[in-house]
What we know:
By secondary structure, the protein is mainly alpha-helical. The chain has helices at residues 4-8, 15-38, 43-73, 78-101, 107-129, 137-159, 162-168, 174-190, 193-198, 205-210, 215-241, 243-247. It is built from twelve helices and no strands. Helix 4 (78-101) packs antiparallel against helix 5 (107-129).
Amino acid sequence: MISLLEVIAIPKDDPIAFTFFTGYMAMAAASVFFFFERGRVADKWKLSLLVSGLITAIAAVHYYYMRDYYMVTGENPTALRYIDWTLTVPLMCVEFYLLTKVAGAKKSLMWKLIGASVLMLVAGYIGEAFNPPGGSTSHSVMWGVISTIGYIYVLYTAWFGEVAQLANSDKSTPTVRRGIRTLAWFVLVGWAIYPIGYMCMPGGWLNTGLGWSSANVDLFYNIADAINKIGFGLVVYAIATSSDANSATA
Ligand SMILES: *C/C=C(C)/C=C/C=C(C)/C=C/C1=C(C)CCCC1(C)C
């Protein structure tokens, strides 16, 4: 049996353990914040705040388990990681939809974004979970490329496609436009951290090319999750509490 002490003792020189603990607490605190603040924003933003809180709350629960898994086994909690993402990334697509809805977005936009993100995650999971022992570069590259197609679709939609067009339409407001542009930056910069982590697994380009160990997979994923999940929610919160977004007709 594993003693509790063994589980909670963090080695001083283990930055991954460090980010699992801070990630867990940050997600939990962000959830409390979004759920409480939900009561203070105008009615039309309440659903957005609820979704922000759900994203960080779902992540907090998974971090609780991932942290223990990592502390006990020292390995990447790949299955838990992807279960978390399969729930939270589609919810981030819902956030995009809820914001652009103010400017007239249709439900089909939401389903297209969700479809692309599911492709991105399923391919990424096959790439990581079914990587042969010792690591295969061809396996990791093939599934990484398929996953990237889904990612590029979301990125394109946010910057040039439907999301961007709705943000720039006259039904939008300056705050909503700026908010959507900020979220697009998150998808461009914040989401791009994940493929860097992916390429650290055995057989991955950064693993074979630069010798970055597979332990770095979780370091990149943990940092990216904190930036994206909490950051996304804060952008939505900023829009919801700005005065011009509240005077808009919607
Ligand atoms: C809260 C979790 C988020 C926002 C997760 C996002 C994950 C990605 C953008 C993952 C992307 C990947 C690629 C683009 C290629 C390699 C495989 C992935 C799944 C790491």
